[in-house]
Amino acid sequence: MQLIYLLTTGGTIEKAYSEKTGVVANAHSKIDRHLSLLRLPDSQVKIVQVLNKDSLEMEDSDREIILSMVKSLLSRRAPIVITHGTDTMVQTGLHLLRSLPALNSTIILTGAMTPLGFEGSDGLQNLTESLFAARVLGPGIFIVLHGQVFPADRVRKDRVLVRFVPIEQG
Amino acid sequence: MQLIYLLTTGGTIEKAYSEKTGVVANAHSKIDRHLSLLRLPDSQVKIVQVLNKDSLEMEDSDREIILSMVKSLLSRRAPIVITHGTDTMVQTGLHLLRSLPALNSTIILTGAMTPLGFEGSDGLQNLTESLFAARVLGPGIFIVLHGQVFPADRVRKDRVLVRFVPIEQG
Amino acid sequence: MQLIYLLTTGGTIEKAYSEKTGVVANAHSKIDRHLSLLRLPDSQVKIVQVLNKDSLEMEDSDREIILSMVKSLLSRRAPIVITHGTDTMVQTGLHLLRSLPALNSTIILTGAMTPLGFEGSDGLQNLTESLFAARVLGPGIFIVLHGQVFPADRVRKDRVLVRFVPIEQG
Amino acid sequence: MQLIYLLTTGGTIEKAYSEKTGVVANAHSKIDRHLSLLRLPDSQVKIVQVLNKDSLEMEDSDREIILSMVKSLLSRRAPIVITHGTDTMVQTGLHLLRSLPALNSTIILTGAMTPLGFEGSDGLQNLTESLFAARVLGPGIFIVLHGQVFPADRVRKDRVLVRFVPIEQG
Predict the structure, then answer these.
(1) How close D55 gets to chain C, by Cα (Å)?
(2) Do D19 and C118 touch (CB under 8 A)?
């Protein structure tokens, strides 16, 4: 049985439509309901709700909370998948990368352009890919979505194309 | 073959999520794609895109456009279904009611609390019911959704319950 | 609050795919799960599981069981929707029609060509229409599906077209 | 742009329900419709329809056809995903393994327990995982589904559990 930690922090992937306001926002975590659509007979996915924020509203203190949770889990020797808003996903990835220089675990950041359960959503695809990547990729911090794997320091979100694209390492 | 006119005016039922802005709004009409999920072997549904507005932004002039389109179709002797935002659906229904005193056709107003294609949407249910009601109800102006039929002058939207409720006729 | 009885007897609408046999068959009733997708705020739908059979395997004794259940519910003065296999739906409808000459209630028979939950299924549409018809049609026995209403003695299934078509009353 | 060949051979993943016969069988390939639900902005997936058979009906000659197609594509230096019935997927995998001793490409076999588009289907998950695995796994022949990766010679289908389980290498 492969243990995987799934840390949720909010972002579009978990946003919901409010019938009272007509707004799409992070209200309650809903990833468990969608995770249950996947068949993972020899994986044990433990969901940890860390935050529930639009990533544009994340501050340094939020990234410290995420880092702190990741640190506390590293001793379990299990891969970690973090769902996160796409707008500052790279920023959080870089923060983890700088703060965990001797990392020996696999950490995957993922998210979605359209919320889980909305037509045309990429959420379940990205969750599927990330849980798979968590098992097959080696140590490091990666952004995984849309069939792609990016090291956290070689990627940026292209807001016009609404996807992630590689950048040359500085 | 039963001819039915389906007039679209926007509203939540046809709203879509924008990946660039994160906002749910009326952009392009999408009812044809969802209508194609229904089996209506002896109905011919003609879609007429009249407006594409959040009903809170509708003005008197918009209601005149809807009324004008309805009037132009009455001679076809076919029932008319109008998809509309729920917030001012009753207002539009009352305007049609006052403006068409000798109405001999069936006119159905419907909409949705959650857009078509979003999880938990009531849009396809309401569209199904309205197209059915258009064939079996007699002349009059009705609001049809959630398994309910309301004469246009005996209903209001309850924004707390997020549904329509009957009112006593004044 | 409108009370509606929903009697299930099996048929394609409730069939499920077996991963062990690769066969689609009536195993467990699944209509409650799909019914919960509909918003019916002022309806109370009571599900009564009567049978769970492919309608080609129904015998006279099965139709007696259905008739008996219908008779026992008539005093409740609530409309009745019966989900049923399409192949012998008309036969059951005619049996009810002959056996209930003084019927003063609305009885709707419905079903599906493709099981609920399979892509392209007409099941939820037909269930939606039938529950709506149960509230708006007058007394009689009707087959309701695909946007159509047929008196039970004026309809046949066209197996080539995979739909119901009207017949002249004999 | 990553080129991936997707060879379809039939199996449950591509089966469809026939409204005329009530049987689930391999009729027309339908993987393209479901593939289009995935966002793969830097992948080019070329679908090659090789066979369309229940894998229990596959004969040696069918496996030769699959092998022949694989051989003809190896020079393209692109990974290959093969959709296949689960009952004899391992047999085909072993045939490829024995016939391609100097394999330097990644070949993934996948399938589903429930057809694509049926409720509860594992088809899209397995397709997602396999296309991802095709990009990140090294050379070899693997069975990928349900979050798992098995070398073709270390796996068997457990028909009671309806999943694949590892076997010790002989």
Answers:
(1) 12
(2) no
Q: What is the b/e burial string over A108-124, where b = at least 16 CB atoms within 10 angstroms of the residue's CB? A: bbbbbbbbbbbbebbbb
Q: Is C38 in CB contact (< 8 Å) with chain B?
A: yes
Task: State the amino acid at position D150 in one-letter form.
Answer: F
Average pLDDT, chain C: 97
Chain B residue with minimal CA distance to C36? B120
- Closest among C53, C70, C73 to C62, alpha carbons compared: C53
CB A48 within 8 A of CB A7: yes
A159 Cβ under 8 Å from any chain B Cβ? yes
pLDDT at position C141 is 98
Q: From the list C12, C19, C24, which residue is nearest D162 (CB)?
A: C19
Q: Which DSSP state fits C67?
A: H
> Three-class SS string for chain B?
CEEEEEEEEECHHHCEECCCCCCEECCCCCHHHHHCCCCCCCEEEEEEEEEEECHHHCCHHHHHHHHHHHHHHHCCCCCEEEECCCCCHHHHHHHHHHHCCCCCCEEEEECCCCCCCECCCCHHHHHHHHHHHHHHCCCEEEEEECCEEEECCCEEEECCCCEEEECCCC
What letter would DSSP give residue D154? S
pTM of the model: 0.97
Q: Does A160 touch chain D (CB under 8 A)?
A: no
**A77 φ/ψ sector (left φ>0, alpha ψ -120 to 50, else beta):** left
Structure tokens at D98: 């024995």
**Contact (CB, 8 A) for D151 and D141:** yes
Predicted local confidence at residue B170, as pLDDT = 55
The label of the residue with tokens 């509309």 reads: B84
Judged by CB atoms closer than 8 Å, whether chains meet at B119 and A117 is answered as: yes
Contact A39 D146 (CB under 8 A): yes
Neighbouring chains of B at 3+ CB pairs under 8 Å are: A, C
Which of D17, D20, D162 is the closest to C118 by Cβ?
Answer: D17
pLDDT of residue B108: 98
The predicted structure's pLDDT at residue C152: 98
Q: Which two tokens stand for residue C162?
A: 């995979």
How many angstroms separate the CA of residue D122 from the nearest CA in chain A? Answer: 7
User: D126 — contact with chain C (CB < 8 Å)?
Assistant: no
What is each CA distance from C127 to C49, C82, C83, C122, D81, in whole angstroms?
15, 10, 8, 9, 40
| C91 vs B: CB within 8 A | no
In three-state secondary structure terms, A17 is strand
Assess D148–A contact: CB distance below 8 Å, yes or no: yes
How would you classify the pairing of strands C140-145 and C148-151?
antiparallel
For A159, D61, D145, D149, D168, the CA distances from D96, given in Å and listed in that order, are 43, 13, 18, 17, 19
d(CA B147, CA C102): 28
Residue B168 pLDDT: 77
Residue of B nearest to C39 (CA): B146
- The answer to whether D89 and D55 have CB atoms below 8 angstroms apart is yes
Q: Is D160 on the interface with A (CB under 8 A)?
A: no
- Nearest CB among D43, D147, D161 relative to A43 is that of D147
The helix (H) or strand (E) run that includes residue C13 is: none
Q: Flag whether the ipTM exceeds 0.90.
A: yes
